[in-house]
Amino acid sequence: MSSFLAQVFKLLMQVIVLLISQPLLGLTLPACVVIVYVVQKWYLRTSRQLRRMELESQSAVYFNILETVSGVQTIRAFGWQDAIAKESSVSLNNSQRPVYLTRSLRRWLNVVLDAVVACIAVGTVWLAVAGALAAGSSQPIVKFTPSGGQVGVALNIILLTNTTLLRLIQQWTNLEVSLGAVARLREATHETPQEESLLEKSKNSIDPDIQLPANWPSSGEIDFSNVTASYNQDTPVLNEVNLCIKPGQVAVICGRTGSGKSSLLMSLLRLLTVRRTGKIAIDGIDLAGLRLDDIRERAFVTVSQDPFLLPGAGLRFHLDPTETLPNKALAEALKKTGLLSLFAGSSYDEADDASTDSLWDRALSSFPVLSAGQAQLLSITRALLQLQTRSSPSSGQYSDHDRGKRMPIILLDEITASLDAETESAVYDVVEEVFIKGRDGAGHTVLVVTHRPAALTKRLRPGQDVTVWMSNGKVERVDPVAVEN
Ligand SMILES: Nc1ncnc2c1ncn2[C@@H]1O[C@H](COP(=O)(O)OP(=O)(O)OP(=O)(O)O)[C@@H](O)[C@H]1O
Locate the ABC transmembrane type-1 domain: which residues (predicted)? Predict the structure, then answer.
């Protein structure tokens, strides 16, 4: 913007100096303005289109490079080198076409502006000659007789004006390109569905009559009544689900692939749209009338099928993103899931807490690469820590009588799918100790989605826990865990 303004003022000054040295050139000014206006209009319109084509064709090249880098092993294994090289060179050639056309357009602009300035220069020389002839004539063509110095200054300024005009139009194009980039970013941020806008929407649908107790959920009872839910508005993935899970109960959710097990958990987190004909209540409070952040931050601790890890982020961020827990708690949780020795390596000394101090701010990528199972264990460690932070309402926010213990519901979605039998058993040991039995003897409500219910059977409590069988988005049956004879 500043260089554009600099060119504008430069041009203004040059025109003023030119008019002082050759006032008659002022007559050509309207014609020049019209010509420059028409030329810049054509130039800008074309260069805008070319810039768009350039960006699109370049994105194909970048996409090609990224795809090749990430799939280089596959390319080598299948011997696709020639085909990929050909494809890359085609997209590179295509990306060069708009660049070439843009350069040609600039040259065209140069030539047109040169021609305009050449006309003005011819006019200046003509005025000078006519003025000189007028000096010896009885009937002068022009009454103005410029001095040699004035003609020199005018010609010099004319040459400079040409460059200034060219730069001005190019700066304007650059400004437009930059504004276009800003507009595209704005479009992306406004049109991509944002969690914040969902939160905003959910704020609008909050039921003002619901006074959410600070210790909600205090027991963890879940009641699905006639729940029909879908990802988009058309096909429901949950069909009239009726299910009641008692406080402290473990519900193992089983069923064929695509039967709606994960969707059942997602409907609790309001990641699915639940139709108004049904409702999901936790401890008697309908989730539809609550804020999304209240539901997700207070009511649930979730471990999903796919661990979400950011290699550039620190270990603490992965374990305790809100940075509320002391290092000791992080180390204890990692020890529980067997990951502490992996992260601390040989420097770990069980008797010395300080031996782990350097771990927490190190980026995850600086540790040995985690296997799928180890990544899943890290997610479970995070869940253990989340349970600690979510169980007690933060002290400053609530009055004393409100400050009971929360009992978040634990949602585990195929957490052992990528683990071997031995690690699976170790993980379920932790689940049993921390979630099912609870630290102080009061267990949490736990929903476990699994394809291998047998691995959990021995940890379920006869007469208390249940296995929920799902099929085609419906609850087919609920089997209580049988009492062993
Ligand atoms: N993001 C999504 N958008 C639209 N439909 C989806 C989405 N995720 C799942 N579905 C559909 O919802 C239905 C139930 O899927 P869901 O993931 O709940 O099944 P699942 O029983 O958990 O399967 P799996 O055992 O393979 O995890 C499927 O028909 C699937 O096509």
Answer: 1-176
Percentage of the chain lying above the pLDDT 70 cut: 87
- How close is the Cα of 263 to the center of ligand 1, in Å? 6
List the residue whose alpha carbon is closest to atom 4 of ligand 1.
231
Domain endpoint, select from 168, 191, 214: 191
What is the DSSP annotation of 105-162?
A: HHHHHHHHHHHHHHHHHHHHHHHHHHHHHHHT-SS-S-S----HHHHHHHHHHHHHHH
| CB 206 within 8 Å of CB 142 | no
Closest atom of ligand 1 relative to the 232 alpha carbon: 4
Domain extent, residue 153, equals: 2-191
pTM (predicted TM-score): 0.68
Over residues 134-165, the pLDDT tens digits come to 666 655 555 556 677 777 777 777 777 777 87
- How many domains does the structure of the chain reveal? 2
Q: What share of the chain is helix, strand, coil (3-state, %, to 5)?
A: 60, 10, 30
Buried b (16+ CB within 10 A) or exposed e, 89-121: eebeeebeebeebbeebbeebeebbeebbeebb
- How close are the terminal C-alpha atoms of the chain, in Å? 83
Q: Which atom of ligand 1 is nearest to the CA of 266?
A: 18
- Domain-embedded: residue 175: yes
231 touches ligand 1 (CB under 6 Å): yes
- For the Cβ of 14 lying below 6 angstroms from any atom of ligand 1, the answer is no
In angstroms, what is the C-alpha Rg of the chain? Answer: 37
pLDDT at residue 412 is higher than 50: yes
